[in-house]
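BACKBONE STRUCTURE TOKENS:
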Amino acid sequence: MSIPVTLRSDCNAVRLRQLARWSKDVPQTRRLLTLAVTYGVARAPKRRDRRG
């Protein structure tokens, strides 16, 4: 089983996307965008299942 990693509170998905946009290094850009998705999912409110 994997160990959960805590996300930093001083960073957010928007800031990570900005950094990725300015980055000239392709592998770094890929990592930043992956983290942005992770932050976006982790911080998003839980949605209810609306099926009857």
About this structure: The CA atoms of residues 17 and 48 lie 27 Å apart. The longest helix spans residues 26-43.
